[in-house]
């Protein structure tokens, strides 16, 4: 097993910058604002041949603000799960009362602690760490995460007490599941319910989640990565620079996902932003599970209205069966992972050419292609051109004149025939000779 290394410290000492440097990613949002990170963020790092898991956390500070309190609770849960802690302090500010309180807390815990004095570029190491010896930790290292200085030395020391990792068996493909939706739709609550623990900060205030937070999980022997994302509002309502970055992270999470759970709030009208998000997921070719949350809090007449609104405003999601849930109470949440599994399997499905051509012939016989410029468009044969999402290439003559409505008809026929659930099907049209024709090969 990889050792779990947790980063702790006051707000704005550079923990997220350290996280990004150790994981060689930009997964954690970084800005010169205290308290930006609220949830635990997991990533993978490596020093030489030694892999490890690193966890970014929110700052520990004596705050009365409810979100800071919740964030501190998340940090303490992370420390309880840690094999080692890297306590990050700020060389420019020097030792503070907040540092001393955290040090006192860490000394009570049965976990090895290494002190990382960040932002120490341009200083002698002995000078940078001198003010922090009084905190009572033996291992002190001067680093600069922004300048990539001292990190390998730091992590070599942190990992020195752990045995080298043994080879693990190759696992099944891990499904990355991005949970997206408008602010306050219940995304973090859903992730917590699926995990069976209060893993993410949850508040009634919209915009609580600012970053995309990745959480590994196991269910019935299958591995998943749940990605909680920031809520996405209409562009005209986004005036905060941090929120703009959060939206970018959400869109990146959709691009990296295998399956997207799109959450719609049953208490709110199915709006333009829900349709825009669904369209973006479809444009990226991602498999999709539609979750209508807070279903327990609407009346029977309102439920009928929501169903009609989904059919009217999201007609292009015919491949995604809606699931009516309560993330807070857990009602029907257990149906989501099986739906994710089916969507993930459908997106990666092999579609044999003989079956594709039989289905194509039946589709053309049932609804012949239209006539264009006095000549009928001919569709001759089909084969699979890609997966995730399934891509079906149809060859024929005059296919450039085939209407989009007929292309959608073919996609629906193929999806129905192969019983594909939760994934879009793309149909690519190509003119020319059949490269699989044996007479052509001769």
Plain-language structure description:
It is elongated, with a radius of gyration of 26 Å. The chain is built from 13 helices and 17 strands. Helix 11 crosses helix 12 (404-417). It folds into 3 domains: 4-159, 3-Layer(aba) Sandwich (Rossmann fold), CATH 3.40.50.300; 175-347, P-loop containing nucleotide triphosphate hydrolases (Rossmann fold, 3-Layer(aba) Sandwich), CATH 3.40.50.300; 353-441, K homology (KH) domain (GMP Synthetase, Chain A, domain 3). Residues 29-38, 64-68, 200-210 and 234-245 have low confidence and may be disordered. The protein is an alpha/beta fold and 442 residues long. Helix 12 links the parallel strand 16 and strand 17 (426-431).
